[in-house]
Prior knowledge:
This protein is mainly beta. The chain has one domain. Helix content is 2%, strand content 39%. It contains 2 helices and 39 strands. The strands form 7 sheets. Strands 6, 7, 8, 23, 24, 25, 26, 27, 28, 29, 30 and 31 form a 12-stranded mixed β-sheet that branches. A hairpin with a 4-residue loop joins strand 29 (405-413) and strand 30. Residues 1-21 and 558-577 have low confidence and may be disordered.
Amino acid sequence: MKHLVQLSIVYLALSVAVIGGSAEAESPASESGPAGTAIQFKLVKFDISPPLRDIEVPEDAEQPLKISREHKTPEGLNTLPEGWNGKTGTRFSPHVLQKASGTRAAIPAPTVNIEGLGKGISGYSLGGVPPDTTGGVGPNYYIQWVNTAYAFFDKTGAMVNLPGNDWRNGNTIWSGFGGKCQTTNDGDPIVIYDQLAGRWVMTQFGLSASGTGPHSQCVAVSTTGDPLGTWARTEYEWPSNYLNDYPKMGVWPDGYYLAVNQFSCNNSWSCSWHGGAVAVFDRENLLQGIAPRAPQYFDLGSIYGSLLPVDIDGDIEPPEGSPGYFIAIKGGVSHFLRIWETSIDWDTPANSTCGTASNDPSSSVAVTSFSNTNGIDQPGTTEDLDSLSPRLMFRAPYRNFGDHESIVLTHTVGNPGGMRWYEIRDPGGSPVLYQEGTYVPDADERWMGAVSMDSSGNIAMGYSVSGAVISPSIRATGRLADDPLGTMTFSELEIATGSGHQNPSGDQNRWGDYSTMSIDPSDDCTFWYTQEYITGIGSFLWRTRIAAFKFDECITDSIFADGFESSDIGAWSVATP
């Protein structure tokens, strides 16, 4: 989702009292450095929140409806400069263009399939368009966050009752904190579960009233495994007054990795492209509940953008000393996956690296050429929906199997839109494109996907589907680890069936802008997927669904399989150089 325009100025009144134990920033303001070096930027404030279960909001509190301003990225991003001297990856198996559904029966019926936040929840008022649907799953809870509210669900799918509204405006995490993280609720949310530590991470941006900034990134990490308890809360001032658009976060042992698209904006929010950037936040201190060190930031420049950080699934850490990774797709005439290896030295930031010495990708692997997807068809209207093709879709799940490491990715290609997906192995060496497929089984359009892999190496992929007679709906498919490479072998699972179509308001043809597929740490087998769909005709009618399903063939192998939930400091794992 892009910058949200406020249509209503009625905000929930929040206390401005500062919670005891807070710390004003002592970290440096943004400072420039030689090309390729990390820049540290400002921690505005840090504190520990009261328990979220004790923060009461009025039952009639409404969130102002906000609509995204679209900040477009240029065509042809992620083209390598002349003289690039990184590593070139290889291909293990050929691309498969899959024009028919899988021959296996559909994925087993979901164990949970419930309405998420949106028009399907009685009394809920939409807070933003598009919803930017995200969610994370832990041993005992599922958290869904949309523009611009979140809710807690137990593992049966029941929404957790809280004082006042059961759902909360996104900024209530920062209630009493002060600053933009408390007073704004601008969205672009991400929620993830840090399985290595048994903690939750929630983040969204906080924008200044003027486009000229400065803007903020709001990051909160639960102090235990209980998301209804206390949180370590932070506000960071984004460097150089850039708009930190489309933030995406992932977990790595040495930090919380964030990628954004940066724009330079004037007072009236007319914005121009600046380029992609990445930042790494101090995971170690946040997990200990102490003031974090200044984030380390790399400005990648105007030729790069729409990167994704990898995000660890499973309970096996990466090999010791492994860098973290950011990945992007290169469009245009020829097509490649670009990988930035990232190593963070918290003691000596000048030693930190992202990609090559000039912040170009560390490695590149060729993928099968594709065409970008045009607008997505809907029934009963000539109005199309935005496909966001060919941007890689959140998340980029990483898993260490011991004998190999895998990263899975997906994005939309072709006309009609189909789901292109990849499995990359050996990302820190010379990366191998282990398998690659394009799933387009019929004339309907599939887009806005998300993909993940369970502990047995089986892959599930969820997405939106629409067409001339199919209203925007939610489906999923998948494959087993030993199935033919490049193919989705399961018939489609219908998660939610839509009706009607979305009528864009002005240029608001946005859909998504992302969905989220997560893996349950309780068994390392169950996929939890949350996505948007619609029933009705109009501009502001989105619903969301939360579904949990698994393959019978998955073998449970998880430290949480006995129901244990990590909640003490000694249970988490971090890595420092």
